[in-house]
């Protein structure tokens, strides 16, 4: 399925499930859809072959998800080698990766998958406390259960401590021997606990590929803000106060560009869904019709003396 149609299909499905959606954001963005339902925010990268996600896109998507308190997801149909199986969570670039059917059950029925694809095969997570309780209720020692299941005593011990995932075959044998439900769903919204999160080195102002973007980010930094440059997002940066109590989705452009108004509307949609303030900064003043976010000039930013001057201007419009 062509990528635009695939994104559209996922967007309509999310809307039907009650999510507020912003999609078709920007070419080669690290996420194609931002979707919110109540306090749940999803940032989704949608593509047929999930191995098409680039490392730089993955790093930026993880970082933005962390900063925006979102769940990053890659949704696709296949890998290079095979189709993505229903009810299985794969991992690409440290991001939970699922197919459309798995996403559909999650957003409509709140049903999580139970299988985790890892190097070496398919694994499940065991509820260690439920396993220990069921084992003791049936009078099995660690060794008894291990012998019946066909694993080592140490393996059962590690399962009960939630320190080791279980192969699909072993999990089935454990439940059969104990006649108890001990398999846990894979909560991919707690993605950091599955894949971990290493603090990424943030791009520096010197890494800005565009001169105007560099000048504006430098002015914001000198004003007292943290500026997190976004190279693969539908915006140019996140601008935050030093305590990160306020995060502003920030776009940068040139007044003469034909795409400016479209980019501003995209920024509006994203900021509304992620529930963050937004601003768009141009190289010089331009009247933008019906803009629902503040559109500022580079000169305005450079003339400000305190961070509060900018925050008040943003708050007045957002």
Secondary structure: elements and pairs:
Blueprint: H1 3-16, E1 20-23, E2 33-37, E3 40-46, H2 55-67, E4 71-75, E5 88-92, E6 95-98, H3 100-109, E7 115-118, E8 121-126, H4 128-137, H5 142-149, H6 153-160, E9 166-167, H7 168-178, E10 183-184, H8 191-195, H9 211-223, E11 226-229, E12 237-240, E13 247-253, H10 260-274, E14 277-282, E15 295-297, H11 298-303, H12 307-317
Parallel strand pairs: 3-4, 4-6, 5-7, 13-14, 14-15
Antiparallel strand pairs: 1-2, 2-3, 5-6, 7-8, 8-9, 8-10, 11-12, 12-13
Helix pairs in contact: 5-6
Keywords:
alpha/beta; 12 helices; ten-stranded mixed β-sheet; 39% helix; 3 domains; 318 residues; Trna Endonuclease, Chain: A, domain 1; five-stranded mixed β-sheet; 434 Repressor (Amino-terminal Domain); elongated; single chain
Give structural notes.
The chain is an alpha/beta fold and 318 residues long. Helices cover 39% and strands 21% of the residues. It is built from twelve helices and 15 strands. The protein has helices at residues 3-16, 55-67, 100-109, 128-137, 142-149, 153-160, 168-178, 191-195, 211-223, 260-274, 298-303, 307-317; strands spanning 20-23, 33-37, 40-46, 71-75, 88-92, 95-98, 115-118, 121-126, 166-167, 183-184, 226-229, 237-240, 247-253, 277-282, 295-297. Strands 1, 2, 3, 4, 5, 6, 7, 8, 9 and 10 form a ten-stranded mixed sheet that branches. Helix 5 (142-149) crosses helix 6 (153-160). The radius of gyration is 24 Å and the shape is elongated. The mean pLDDT is 91.
């Amino acid at each position: 399925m062509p990528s635009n149609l695939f994104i559209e299909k996922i967007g309509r499905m999310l809307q039907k499930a009650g999510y507020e959606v912003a999609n078709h954001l920007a070419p080669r963005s690290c996420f194609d859809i931002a979707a919110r339902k109540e306090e749940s925010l999803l940032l989704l990268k949608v593509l047929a072959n999930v191995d098409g996600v680039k490392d730089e896109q993955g790093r930026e998507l993880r970082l933005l998800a962390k900063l925006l308190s979102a769940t990053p997801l890659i949704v696709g149909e296949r890998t290079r080698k095979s189709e993505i199986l229903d009810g299985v969570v794969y991992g690409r670039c440290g991001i939970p990766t699922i197919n459309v059917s798995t996403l559909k059950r999650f957003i409509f029925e709140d049903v999580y998958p139970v299988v985790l694809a890892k190097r070496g095969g398919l694994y499940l997570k065991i509820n260690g406390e439920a396993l220990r309780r069921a084992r003791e209720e049936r009078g099995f020692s660690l060794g008894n259960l291990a012998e019946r299941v066909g694993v080592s005593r140490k393996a059962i011990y590690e399962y009960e401590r939630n320190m080791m995932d279980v192969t699909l075959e072993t999990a089935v044998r454990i439940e059969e021997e104990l006649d108890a439900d001990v398999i846990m769903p894979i909560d991919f919204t707690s993605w950091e606990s599955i894949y971990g999160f290493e603090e990424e080195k943030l791009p520096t102002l010197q890494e800005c590929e565009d001169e105007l973007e560099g000048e504006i980010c430098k002015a914001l930094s000198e004003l007292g803000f943290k500026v997190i440059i976004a190279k693969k997002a539908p915006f140019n940066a996140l601008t935050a106060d030093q305590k990160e109590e306020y995060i502003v989705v920030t776009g940068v452009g040139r007044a003469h560009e034909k795409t400016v108004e479209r980019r501003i509307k995209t920024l509006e949609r994203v900021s509304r869904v992620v529930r963050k303030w937004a601003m768009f900064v141009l190289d010089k003043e331009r009247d933008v019709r019906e803009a629902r976010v503040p559109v500022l000039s580079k000169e305005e930013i450079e003339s400000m003396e305190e961070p509060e001057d900018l925050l008040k201007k943003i708050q007045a419009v957002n």
